[in-house]
Write a structure and sequence with these properties.
By secondary structure, the protein is mainly α. It has helices at about 1-5, 10-30, 35-50, 55-80, 85-100, 110-130, 140-145, 160-165, 170-200, 210-230, 235-255, 265-280, 285-300, 305-315, 355-360, 365-370, and strands spanning about 150, 150-155, 320, 325-330, 335, 340-345. Helix 3 (about 35-50) packs across helix 11 and helix 6 runs antiparallel to helix 11 (about 235-255). It starts with a helix and ends in a 57-residue tail after the last helix.
Length: about 425
């Protein structure tokens, strides 16, 4: 561990300088030799580092979601080239290149803060051994050795003996109780963060080996923190507990406001967004508009939660647009398909008459109503009634009766087939 910490000694001076600047501020409030001044200095160092790492955290989220999206394709490649590992690796790299995904992007925040972690460990280890390091001179070293957090010195470890702890002004019981509680909190926060990711922000419609690996890491990481925690000084435990709590809160915010498509968190988010949009009649936040825009662009490829969201908007008389906005629409005249896309209204078919009604010439109710309505024609239009006929109209010529055998068709009687009858074919004997 000392070799790894020495490897990152190039950043020891900047880390120690930042701690001293925060200590100057908090020392004027709580006192320079108190555990609050030194403990809050370490907490402030964590907050400063994590704020600087927010862009990397955003890349981590995008990389994780991209990896989840590629899981079905990765599984097909593994099954296709399961006997050819080299070809399998080549196809994997080709898939990453085509999709623009880098698997190492999900590890960027951890890799970026590792130098700060080991530099802080190197600083606290120097305080425990009574050596000046970085910008920490003799007076600051003596002040840091006197600082206690709930009775445990900043440089004390769980495995330190009674003589070492007595030199730091503490007892074995106080140090081990404080360090054990902090190790438990550190492991529990890590477990909850990973469990929250697996249960709420993972696409449950895709079952891949990647999910099994994540479930395994959910139990492995807390055990690793517990094992390594007994070798960390109290100050490092403060640092790691603070960064775990920051990660947990940051992940809760991301899951609530920008969940993974197909996850339980997305269903809960769209349910909240539905109530908000139907109440205000529009999408207010820019992040919400981006999510609605992505849902509209999917078309028929939407999942159940997204289809439910589109249908709920349709029932409320709202229509989601391609730019992510929401406008009012006509729900009475426009029908909506299951996926939310508008479809043409169905034509209402007239009621079918029975055979006796067709033979007797009885009309349907809606046809009778149309005949009873007054005509909307203008007065200048010619009328078809008998009273409007001119008096001096010429008499019409009498109709000629067709001669038998002339080939003309006779009028069909009621219930009989119109047209000439087909001649019967002679029976074959």
């Amino acid at each position: 561990m000392d070799t790894i910490a020495s490897f990152f000694s190039f950043i020891t001076t900047p880390v120690s300088w930042v701690i001293v600047q925060f200590h100057t501020v908090y020392g004027s409030i709580f006192g320079p030799d108190t555990g609050w001044a030194w403990g809050l200095s370490i907490v402030s160092l964590v907050v400063l580092i994590r704020i600087c790492l927010i862009p990397l955290f955003v890349k981590q989220i995008k990389a994780t979601r991209a990896m989840q999206t590629l899981q079905p394709e990765m599984k097909k490649i593994q099954e296709r080239y399961k006997n050819d590992k080299q070809r399998q690796s080549e196809e994997m790299m080709k898939l990453y290149k085509e999709s623009g995904t880098n698997p190492l992007s999900s590890c960027l925040p951890i890799l970026a803060q590792s130098p700060f972690f080991f530099a802080l460990y190197h600083v606290l280890n120097g305080i425990a051994s009574g050596k000046t390091i970085g910008v920490i001179n003799d007076s600051l070293l003596e002040s840091a050795r006197k600082a206690h957090i709930f009775g445990a010195p900043l440089a004390a470890k769980f495995k330190d003996g009674a003589d070492t702890l007595h030199a730091l002004g503490a007892t074995v019981t106080d140090v081990r109780v404080v360090t054990a509680v902090m190790i438990i909190l550190m492991s529990a926060s890590q477990f909850y963060t990973q469990r929250q990711l697996m249960t709420k922000n993972v696409d449950t419609s895709v079952k891949t080996p990647f999910m099994q690996q994540q479930k395994m890491l959910m139990y492995v990481f807390p055990i690793m923190f517990a094992v390594f925690g007994i070798n960390f000084p109290v100050g490092v435990l403060v640092y790691w507990l603070t960064t775990n709590v920051w990660t947990m809160g940051q992940q809760m915010y991301v899951i609530r406001n920008n969940p993974t498509p197909g996850s339980k968190a997305q269903a809960a988010y769209l349910e909240r967004l539905t109530g908000h949009v139907t109440h205000h009649g529009k999408v207010r936040r820019r992040s919400s508009r981006l999510i609605v825009k992505a849902i509209v662009a999917k078309g028929r490829d939407r999942n159940d939660a997204e289809r439910k969201f589109i249908n709920a908007l349709s029932k409320a008389g709202l229509v989601a647009q391609a730019d992510g906005s929401v406008v009012k629409g006509e729900t009475q005249t426009v029908a909506h398909a299951e996926d939310g896309t508008p479809t043409a209204a169905r034509r209402q078919q007239p009621k079918r008459q029975s055979k006796s009604q067709r033979q007797s010439g009885q009309k349907q109710p809606h046809e009778a109503e149309q005949e009873d309505e007054p005509s909307s024609a203008s007065p200048s239009s010619p009328s078809l009634t008998k009273s409007d006929e001119p008096k001096d109209a010429a008499p019409t010529a009498p109709k000629q009766t067709p001669k038998p055998g002339s080939g003309t068709r006779s009028k069909a009687q009621s219930g009989q087939r119109k047209g000439g009858q087909r001649p019967k074919s002679p029976s074959k004997k």
